[in-house]
Amino acid sequence: MAMPMRDASEDQQKHGQQEHIETLPLFSTTDTDGRMTVLRPGRRVGRAAPLLPWLLAAAALWALTGSVPFGALLGLAPTPAISMLLGHPVTVGVAVVLLFVAIGATVGVYSRAVEQFGQTRVAGLFATLAIAGGLAADAGVLLLWTLTSDPSRPFDLEAIATSPTIPPEFGAVVGAGFALWAAIALLRLLGSIAHARRRQADIERLRVKGSSFTGTLTAVSFANRWIFDLPMFTVEVGYIVDGVPRVVSAHMRTSADRVPIVGSRMC
């Protein structure tokens, strides 16, 4: 279970009329790395539907960006004229601009997914699906257009090794690789969303019905594991229940400037 925890000395700090909640450090007794989930009080369980327009927009941008390398470099252009157009410096310049826009849109998808599900694993899979899905769709459209423009030309994968130029078959194989990547990301995403929903429901239930104890950090172990710029630790927290000392092991994700030391009080 992942829960944000605060130093006991910060418990009484207020922001306006509401208690200030620090989401880092984040502790979990069940999950590690990107599967650690945090849901702020009052937030609804995440849904994928609000993300779909952003996901489709990002995928479309990646498809437009990918048309230049697929068409001009990987042989997926229906005619030589279109291949030359896609390789024109102006077209390449537009594709570079679209690339930055696509990256920005994908970052937006990632950020919104984190807000919806509170889990970086789900957010990363949404971003992966946008990139791989867009490039796979682009390759599929260009391949279909190429084959229908010249129905007499056979589709032979051996041309990859025998053709003196880059054949459409090579672009098709690259596109199929992106399609496989997108399919794997989609399957993993479905399972990760279900996991995040279970975790968020459990966290909400514990916040309503669970008991809170003040504990002390008794051990901190760092194995040089990171999520982006956030270090991951294995910790032990000691606390007392009905006069009996207990110790619970947990995983901790925090920022480099908020690493609790042994002896820190937690609640």
From TrEMBL:
Transmembrane residue ranges: 51-77, 89-110, 122-147, 170-190
This protein's UniProt keywords: Membrane, Transmembrane, Transmembrane helix
Chain spans, region Disordered: 1-20
Chain intervals with Basic and acidic residues compositional bias: 7-20
Protein name, as recorded: Uncharacterized protein
Keyword Membrane among UniProt keywords: yes
